[in-house]
Structures are given as C-alpha cells and as structure tokens.
Specification:
The protein is mainly beta. It contains two helices and ten strands; from the N terminus they run αβββββαβββββ. The strands form two sheets. Strands 2, 3, 4, 5, 6, 7, 8 and 10 form an eight-stranded antiparallel sheet that branches. Strands 1-9 form a two-stranded parallel sheet.
C-alpha cells in the first residue's frame, strides 16, 4: 500500500505541466552604457548597452540631460516620454551595428521587446573640475512583456550607467 501511494505521488509530481513558464533574466550591470555621439552633449538621446547577442537601448526624452545640477532625480515616464527596447540578435553585436552610417545586414534581430511601463531617473552633479557634469541614469519598475505575453520579471538593470558631459 505504501508503495502504491508513493508511486501515485511520484506520478503526480512528474506529470505536472508548468504551462511553459519562462522566466528571463536581463543582466547588464557589468556592461558600460555607450552612445554614437562623440562627445556626449545634453542633446544626445540614444544610449545602449551590449551584452554579447543582447542589447538594451534607451531613447531618452528631450531635455532630461542638462548641464546643470539637479535637485534630486529628474523623472521620465516609459513609454510615453522615454523608450526602452530589449533586443536579442542572431549572433554577437558590436557598437558598429548602431553607429555605422549604413547598418550591417548581420546580425539579425531575433526578438525585440519594448518596455510597457516604468520610469527613467537622471541625477546630475557637477564634478570638482567645475566644467564636467555626471549624469547617473537609473531605471525603475521597468516592465517588459514579450509578444507571447511572458513578463520578464528579473530585471537587474536598475543602474543603467553614468555619462559625462562638458559645459
């Protein structure tokens, strides 16, 4: 009888379907934010992070980066003011993919996910040299949902990066 009960419990555990639950994790913490602009100015709006075959692209709202000290973070809502896009490519991607005048044919975008909610926060300080501004870009409560409806829940991208501009 104990063997039958054990067998039935084992059978139930092995036959459960998780509904193809897929939890994705985005980890761009060790990757520096980049831009095609050189030098970066307050007018620069597009920044990206590349992690092999994945990218996180940030299109900032106009006037969120200013060469003036902020009194706390300046907030921009996603997607109505700033946009965040997560892309998966067919192979590793480089900065040239974003910065070349004529985009390369490869790698190919396999999946593109637009953020549906959250906010971008930018805090600006003046460095000790008196002419360089540091802009710390943070992401808060970013919500990414795939085309199949899967929510990416493990977003380790709170600190997008720090960029500098010169007055």
């Amino acid at each position: 009888m104990k063997n039958l009960l054990f067998f039935c419990c084992l059978l139930m555990l092995l036959s459960c379907d998780d509904g193809d639950l897929q939890i994705e994790a985005l980890n761009f913490d060790s990757v520096a934010a980049q831009s095609c602009a050189a030098p970066i100015t307050p007018a620069t709006r597009i920044f990206f992070k590349i992690n092999q075959d994945e990218t996180l692209i940030l299109n900032l709202a106009a006037n969120i980066i200013k060469n003036e000290v902020s009194n706390g973070p300046i907030t921009s809502l996603v997607p109505s003011q700033s946009q965040i896009t997560y892309r998966i490519f067919s192979e590793n991607v480089t900065r040239n993919y974003f910065c070349d005048a004529i985009p390369a044919a490869t790698p190919v975008v396999v999946e593109e996910i637009e953020a549906e909610g959250g906010e971008v926060r930018v805090t600006t300080i003046l460095k000790e040299d008196g002419v360089t501004f540091e802009h710390k870009i943070e992401l808060n409560a970013i919500s990414l949902v795939t085309q199949s409806g899967t929510r990416i829940t493990d977003l380790r991208i709170n600190n997008f990066g720090t960029i500098t501009t010169v007055e």
